[in-house]
């Protein structure tokens, strides 16, 4: 159990660092298309979190799964809101 937890934490920290570095290197002109793609991936993460929450192997897996569902859903909704807001900037204003 302890080795699996340490391995999972290592993967989490590594993925967080790499994700942060990759996002900081994206130019603003590519942000909206990449955001749309990341929303699709986040939708898959929601499905994976639902599967993890429904496994009911232990109480901790249900709690972590529910937390993952909530956070992934916030990520999807926030991503769509940001994408929509950025796309509004490119629409021509009616005068």
Radius of gyration: 17 Å
Order of helices and strands: HHH
- Major sheet details: none
Shape descriptor? elongated
Number of helices: 3
Low-confidence stretches: none
Measured between the Cα atoms of the first and last residue, the distance is 64 Å
As a percent range, the share of helical residues equals: over 70%
In total, the number of strands is 0
Percent of residues in beta strands? under 5%
Q: Which class best fits the helix and strand makeup?
A: mainly alpha
Mean model confidence by pLDDT: 81
Write a brief caption for the model.
With 95 residues, the chain is mainly alpha-helical. Helices cover 85% and strands 0% of the residues.
List the helices and strands and how they pair.
Layout: H1 2-24, H2 28-54, H3 59-89
Description of the structure:
It is a single chain. This protein has 3 helices and no strands. The protein has 95 residues and is mostly helical. Helix 2 (28-54) packs antiparallel against helix 3 (59-89).
Task: List the keywords.
cell membrane, about 100 residues, transmembrane, about 85% helix, single chain, mainly alpha, transmembrane helix
């Amino acid at each position: 159990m302890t080795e699996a937890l340490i391995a999972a934490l290592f993967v989490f920290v590594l993925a967080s660092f790499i994700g942060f570095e990759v996002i900081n290197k994206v130019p603003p002109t590519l942000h909206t298309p990449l955001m749309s793609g990341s929303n699709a991936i986040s939708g898959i993460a929601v499905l994976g979190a639902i599967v993890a929450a429904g496994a009911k192997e232990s109480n901790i897996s249900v709690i972590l799964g529910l937390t993952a569902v909530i956070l992934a859903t916030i990520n999807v909704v926030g991503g769509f809101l940001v994408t929509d807001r950025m796309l509004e900037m490119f629409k021509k204003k009616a005068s």
